[in-house]
């Protein structure tokens, strides 16, 4: 196996060509910057001698044909290989409508970016000698045609076959939905569970059995590194949401056979129409935070009365922006003790109670 390589992750691009952009009063996505922000990132990445680039889903605003076409044409011009998987926004409908492509069309747009067999929605490829990438599709539809985050049985069986045949390789897994919780009680929280893979325990059981330690996800729009029983779920924030991050990662194996992964995070600081993108985007998110916060405070487990929730929302204006930024620490001393303790759980605190700032820049011993 190759002892050292470098790759990058850019997630949740939500590419929106100008004529496709739509607005909604509570969206946190600043899709207006999707293309210039991506161009800014590519300008940096093309200088780094990368081995490959990963894009873990939500490549487009809402699966528009023009946005998929623009992206695949842009990726084809890059000097390094790129691998993608679909996010919920890329295949929002089973059958094509006036806005979005059909579910089965996605792989045909990205035949050069993992889907060499476009009749399948998942793939595996050797990206480097001894290094295997598995791209999974976490988008399914139930009997009512509603989109859900789940791996079907056929895909799980295929995955086990691939893993069983890859025992001597370093395996990297890319999937849109989270497989390890990044937020307190994420899999059971009414607002957060849709970002989790419904059958994450089944996937994790397979990964642990075959010694797979690295999973790269998106969807949640936050910078976070989560760990559960030998598996790291490294999720990367959205390029169109504060803080507009992307990651550069370097794997190396030392002379003692130990494997390390260094993670460095970067931010898009400005684009032509937003010279101070970080400040403008943080304000954008804060200005639109009230509906989100009211729902968050009045739902379980807090179940606050509406009037009490209204009292707390001004203080919490930047709560989600701080989570999205990664490595957040929360202390609201004037909140009632129960509520104060609840918000502290959202901080970057290890089980031992000490701050653990690994979400943006860290080196992991695998």
UniProtKB/TrEMBL annotation:
It comes from the Bacteria. Residues 5-222 form the Calcineurin-like phosphoesterase domain. InterPro entries: Calcineurin-like_PHP, CNP_phosphodiesterase-III, Metallo-depent_PP-like, Pesterase_cyn. Keywords: Hydrolase, Iron, Metal-binding. Pfam families: Metallophos (PF00149). GO terms for molecular function: hydrolase activity; metal ion binding. The keyword rRNA-binding does not apply. Belongs to the cyclic nucleotide phosphodiesterase class-III family. PANTHER family: CYCLIC NUCLEOTIDE PHOSPHODIESTERASE CBUA0032-RELATED, PHOSPHOHYDROLASE. This is Calcineurin-like phosphoesterase domain-containing protein. The lineage of its organism: Bacteria, Bacillati, Cyanobacteriota, Cyanophyceae, Nostocales.
